[in-house]
Amino acid sequence: MLITGDDILIEYVDRLMNQVRNLGDEGLLQDQWKKSIEKFITHYVWHSQDRRKIEGPLIGILERLEGRLHEMQERRRRLIKYLYKKEGKLDEFE
Hints:
Blueprint: H1 5-23, H2 31-41, H3 51-55, H4 61-86, H5 90-93
Helix pairs in contact: 1-4, 2-4
């Protein structure tokens, strides 16, 4: 099985989201953590816009991370589909 950088990021973001949920209040995050998460969420590599730009300033870090997680999962799904199609194995999974 192929493990990509997205796989590692997916796992990392999933764990990060769980920890933020466990805090119960995003306000308990240290400022440095917030800055680092903000840099990740707003990095130029993302294809979709940050949900804060679309839905407004009240959307929390958890929801914004969720958007990035979904984008990575979708990219991973497309990669797997492409690889199976390239190998002629796609018909086995559809």
